[in-house]
Amino acid sequence: MALPQKVVDQLSREPVRTPGWSGQLLMFSSTIFFICLLVYFGLVYGYKPYLDREVGKLDQQIKLFEQQIPVDEQTKIVNFYSQLANLKSLLSRHVVTSPLLGWLERRTQTNVYFTKFNLNTQSSQLSLGGISKNIDDLTQQLQIFQEDQNVRRASFSNVSVGSNGLWQFDLTVIFDPKFLVAGGSSQ
After folding, report:
1. Residues 91-112: pLDDT tens digits?
2. Sheet bearing 167-175, strands edge to edge
């Protein structure tokens, strides 16, 4: 049996559709590719020349400023900047002793007083001579120094009892080197 003419005409007019998602994926990928191409060409032929022009303008401004400032003034400015940089470097390593005196005052046991003070900044070592009422005060003083986070080591030497019944001693405290540098001390 033959198909009616109407059905044959209808079948010949309808496009054949591919089932599935392959056509949609191809369309999406193509769209993304063309967008990327447009962005690339926009950057290469639009934005890059704009940036090059701006850099050129800034270079011209720099040359104008260089011409406005005489060479001897430029030399003076460079020398001044060099002095400032050297001063900053020196001050960053400057040893500050006044906070050390406050630190020592806060950490001195009440029955102990110091008679000698010698600070060696190169080795971060403080040598103290002192007097205490009794041996317990002396051991408490050592413990106070040893428990401080800025002290690496503290030790006594030449401990003796004087004719007046007071204990005389020499004390050596070695600090963390950062403690004595400006801005590095923690109270």
Report:
1. 776 666 777 888 889 999 889 9
2. 112-120, 125-132, 167-175, 151-161
Q: Which residues pair with 112 in a beta bridge?
A: 132
Cβ-in-10-Å burial (0-12, 13-18, 19+) of 55 comes to exposed
Long-range own/partner contacts, residues 47-56 (CB < 8 A, 24 or more apart): none
Long-range contacts formed by 153-161: CB under 8 A, 24+ apart: none
The rounded radius of gyration (Å) of the Cα atoms in the chain is 42
CA 16, CA 60: separation in Å to the nearest integer?
65
Q: Tell me if residue 101 falls in helix, strand or coil.
A: helix
Query: What per-residue confidence (pLDDT) applies to 144?
Result: 92
Beta-strand ranges (E) seen in the chain are 112-120, 125-132, 151-161, 167-175
- Quote the tokens at residue 8: 């044959």
pLDDT digit string (tens) for 12-53?
Answer: 765 656 566 777 888 899 999 999 999 999 999 999 999 999
**Of the candidates 176, 172, 185, the residue with the CA atom closest to the CA atom of residue 118:** 172
- Please tell me the distance from the alpha carbon of residue 7 to that of residue 23, in angstroms, as a whole number: 28
